[in-house]
Design a protein that fits this description.
Chain lengths: ~500, ~450
């Protein structure tokens, strides 16, 4: 089960391999640089290694073997929706007609790319009940920033520049308050109630003429549906504010509820979560931004528009907040997202949400046999458990359970988030995992909890089967070593 | 649908949960429940999905044209070894490496990326990537605002117009002003009035790009640099064509404190605009203001070399509204591709690729300048692109070239009203002498037809 190779020998940095002049002949030799540039504009030294292709292939293959991905095992990472990434999407995105298409190719010669973007935009708008989407933002947090810039501009144009408060529940993702701060908004954090939800009464306490936006994710990060959402949206709208939907948890609602119908004016979707775009070790992501009709004019440019059977990029939109990135979209990801849409259709996406929620509940009831679930009710796509009792009674923390799971060949769940649950593990299985996988995971976790109760010491060292043991994060932060440097003897 | 559930599985799992139906688990309050039929694309079997995308692909005819497009997205040779390595599932399907013990490989690759960027730019440190070149500049500006407490920024008119536009988008949110430094007749930044401007100590930073948007190599003059130093203004260098770093002196050589750049040239396909990989590098003093992830080297419990994401107290998941940036997901996989490209090319390969870019672009410049009616607008040294003045509206000339299956370059009138007769033309190592001859011949034909206006 364990994906780790037994070899624990450190892999030397690429800079310590190779020999000067051991160059790969990808191109024909050129003339010396000073043929073309005055001497003062020619770089003297370029201190990079020359490696053979074989050495480079071995180096990165070995690094890949020291990396855990969905392809190696179950990845129950809450709020990250680590589902299977279908290979057909990558095969399509790699076609030369997409990968070699330059962003400045005239619209008439890029009609296929524009049609892909248009179809994706239309389908997303329908699926989530928004008037239009922009494919411009590069990730969820980037879309949040764009949305808050829209809100800022919208209020300014309405003559209400003093709306400076952004309301976020205490279960919100960290990007929500960080994005708000980048637009100069003040963040008001609201406590969840004993049911793990935001209540309309709590919202009413803080809204008023200074309310700009209320940012929520639904289901929230406890995996619970915010059932007062319609009343909350109504109250925020009545105060003149806007509602923002953080789409990180959209895998739970497709075909059942739409942010637009819940009363949200703005939203993003992380297609690298719900729409199976590979996370790639931390991006590239893709964060389409949806808006209700009254905000369409503010969307970032360019926007793909259709006239008859012709598509074009529209830049001239006077009310737009402007572009959010160098070029139009993370287009290769738009291709993947549309391919995933075609693999499912409406009924398929509804089924995706059904089975994601079923898997989460199945795992929740099984894990509840041996770990505390602070919100013991049916969940949506994810749920939280707390190791607080284990910590009190046996000195074993959520961190220790998470690290022990690595020894069993599983990725650890999201830890210590949301912040309101002590010793929290947040688990999201996604719909692409089988009942057998969930059963095996449950038994591994059961065994770990048993060890916590009988031999807690043994867990404090975990993981022990991985290529390194627990890493010294304190040392890393205290004496930051962020880059390779040549040994002194080489200078 | 990629879910493995059989009907029996669903039945057993529902029973275990104690629910009667799936609908029971997914029910939402009636007033917001979805009641209408959706208008989304239909479900297709996999072979028909491929066929559907063949239809889209066939309509991207631009890929079959001879192309002289660049302007921030560059066509370079990409060794196939990169796809073979980068598309390995371990890399492709990994999350951000928060669990260091099972992410040592990716963390080391990020550390190598940071190191490569430092070695190329001459800076002390670099982050794990940002979205792209434009957002790198915006984030670099935010670093400078934080470091100086000032609320104004000066940027060169020769910065990529898209970067400039994105900077303005971000700065609307930050309530800071962006001012522009004009161009000289040579197509580089006019720094003549800079010392007086900076004397009031109101500007957080001055941003210049080299090679600039017109392809010209720029080094801020000594006087301008002295004025920045004197006034505590942070020099930001922008690099949109990263391959130029293999040939030109690094930004550290003239005293840049922050470098904001785009690494697309390092093995990342142009892909109609993305995804690419932005980078931010800086001097040591700005370490705690740098946005996004940083991989660091440390040891494990047994003293073995290990890598980990570090200095996370800067980041949004810890610090929330007090974070240095909201960036979370970055462009790790593109940065990984760039790292592999740099490893495969090596010093010798990069220098050679740079030399070929210099050679082909000069061959192109010579060929188009020999066409009657075409002049090269600037005489400054350039890297792989330059401005050709065609003496009549560039849009018309480009449209006529397009009829001859040639994408002659980018119409500068689209960004600079005073340059509507100008085309930004690019040649890389992939541009052939045949391409260049074809463009020269076509230009000859096009320009000798009387203008239609």
């Amino acid at each position: 089960m364990s994906p780790q190779p037994s070899d624990r020998t450190a892999v030397p940095p690429i800079f310590e391999l190779g020999q000067d002049g051991r160059a790969n002949r990808y191109l024909e030799p050129g003339k010396p640089l000073n043929t073309f540039l005055p001497m003062n504009l020619v770089r003297e030294e370029l201190p990079l290694p020359d490696n053979s292709e074989l050495d480079v292939v071995r180096h990165y293959t070995r690094l890949s073997q020291r990396t855990f991905g969905i392809d190696l095992g179950f990845y129950p990472l809450g709020s990250c929706t680590m589902k299977y990434n279908p290979r057909v999407n990558d095969a399509i995105a790699a076609r030369r007609e997409f990968s070699e298409l330059h962003p400045y190719v005239p619209d008439a010669l890029a009609q296929g790319a524009l049609e892909v973007m248009y179809e994706l935009e239309r389908s997303l708008s329908s699926l989530f009940g928004m008037a239009a989407f922009s494919l411009n933002p590069s990730a969820g947090a980037h879309a949040e920033l764009a949305a808050l810039l829209i809100a800022k501009k919208y209020f300014k144009e309405r003559g209400e520049p003093l709306r400076e408060n952004v309301i976020v529940p205490d279960t919100a993702h960290g990007t929500n308050p960080a994005s708000a701060a980048m637009c100069g908004f003040k963040v008001i954090s609201l406590p969840s109630n004993e049911r793990g939800r935001l209540s309309v009464a709590e919202v009413r306490n803080v809204i008023g003429a200074d309310t700009a936006v209320c940012m929520m994710t639904n289901p929230n990060t406890l995996g619970l549906f915010e059932d007062e959402i319609a009343a909350i949206a109504g109250a925020v709208h009545q105060s003149g504010g806007l509602m923002y939907y953080d789409g990180a948890n959209a895998n739970a609602i497709m075909g059942y509820a739409r942010p637009g119908d819940m009363g949200f004016d703005l939203m993003h979707l992380n297609t690298h979560k719900t729409f199976t775009i590979p996370h790639g070790g931390g991006g590239a992501g893709h964060g389409p931004l949806g808006v209700a009709a009254h905000l369409v004019e503010y969307l970032p440019v360019p926007v793909v528009v259709r006239k008859g059977s012709e598509f074009r990029l529209e830049f001239d939109r006077p009310k737009s907040i402007g572009p959010m990135r160098s070029f139009w979209s993370n287009f290769a990801h738009a291709v993947r997202a549309l391919a995933y849409f075609y693999a499912n259709g409406e009924a398929g996406l509804r089924r995706v949400s059904q089975l994601a929620v079923l898997n989460a509940n199945y795992l929740r009831v099984k894990i509840a046999e041996f770990l505390d679930t602070p919100y013991p009710e049916n969940c949506r796509h994810e749920f939280v458990v707390s190791a607080q009792r284990l910590k009190k009674e046996h000195g074993v923390r959520a961190l220790d359970l998470a690290k022990a799971l690595l020894d069993f060949g599983y990725m650890a769940p999201t830890m210590y988030f949301p912040l309101i649950v002590p010793e929290c593990l947040m688990i999201e299985p996604t719909e692409t995992e089988s009942k057998e996988t969930l059963d095996a995971f449950t038994e591994a976790l059961r065994e770990i909890v048993r060890r916590a109760q009988t031999d807690p010491e043994s867990l404090l060292q975990a993981p022990v089967t991985t290529v390194v043991g627990r890493v010294d994060e304190t040392l890393a932060a205290r004496r930051p070593d962020l880059r390779w440097k040549a040994e002194k003897s080489h200078n | 649908m990629y879910a493995p559930h059989t009907e029996t599985d669903v039945k057993e799992m529902l029973q275990a949960v104690g629910a009667q139906s799936l609908d029971e688990l997914l029910r939402v309050p009636d007033e917001i429940a979805l009641k209408e039929k959706l208008d989304v694309v239909p479900a297709l079997p996999e072979y028909l999905i491929q066929r559907r995308f063949e239809h889209f692909a066939a309509k991207n005819t631009g890929v079959n044209y001879r192309s002289f497009l660049g302007a921030g997205a560059y066509r370079h040779y990409v060794p196939p070894a990169i796809a073979a390595l980068a598309m390995r599932g371990e890399f492709l399907t990994a999350y951000t490496p928060y669990q260091a013990e099972v992410s040592q490989g990716y963390l080391q690759a990020i550390y190598e990326w940071q190191s490569y960027i430092c070695l190329l730019t001459g800076m002390d440190l670099a982050n794990a990537s940002v979205y792209d070149g434009a957002t790198a500049l915006a984030e670099a500006a935010i670093m400078a605002f934080g470091a100086t407490g000032r609320h104004k920024l000066l940027v060169s008119r020769a910065i990529h117009p898209n970067y400039h536009a994105v900077l303005r988008t971000y700065c609307e949110g930050l309530d800071v002003d962006v001012e522009e430094l004009p161009l000289t007749a040579d197509g580089v930044t006019d720094c003549s009035g800079l010392a007086e401007k900076l004397a009031g100590r109101h500007y957080a930073a001055v941003a210049v790009q080299s090679p600039n948007f017109f392809g010209n190599v720029e080094t801020p003059p000594a006087q301008a640099l002295a004025a920045m130093k004197e006034s505590g203004t942070i020099p930001i260098a922008v690099v949109a064509e990263a391959l130029s770093l293999a040939a030109l002196p690094p930004p550290s050589s003239w005293g840049a404190q922050i470098v904001a750049g785009e690494a697309q040239s390092f093995g990342v396909p142009v892909a109609y605009g993305g995804p690419y990989a932005g980078f931010i590098a800086s001097t040591q003093e700005h370490m705690r203001r740098i946005p996004g992830r940083l991989a660091g080297k440390t040891v494990d419990s047994a003293g073995r070399t290990a890598y980990v994401l570090t200095l996370q107290a800067r980041e949004q998941h810890i610090r929330r509204e007090r974070a240095t940036s909201n960036i979370c997901t970055n462009q790790a996989h593109c940065a990984l591709i760039a790292t592999m490209y740099l490893a495969l090319m090596g010093k010798t390969g990069l220098r050679n690729a740079a030399a070929l870019n210099l050679a082909r672009s000069r061959e192109l410049a010579g060929a188009v300048a020999s066409v009657a009616g075409v002049t090269l607008k600037y005489s400054a040294p350039f890297f792989n692109e330059f401005v050709a003045d065609v003496g009549r509206p560039a849009a018309e000339v480009l449209a006529a070239l397009q009829e001859r299956n040639i994408l002659g370059g980018v119409d500068l009138g689209r960004f600079y009203p005073e340059m509507r007769n100008c085309i930004l033309m690019t040649a890389t190592e992939l541009t052939t002498s045949g391409d260049i001859a074809a463009l020269a011949t076509a230009l000859e034909e096009v320009l000798h037809v009387p203008a239609t206006v």
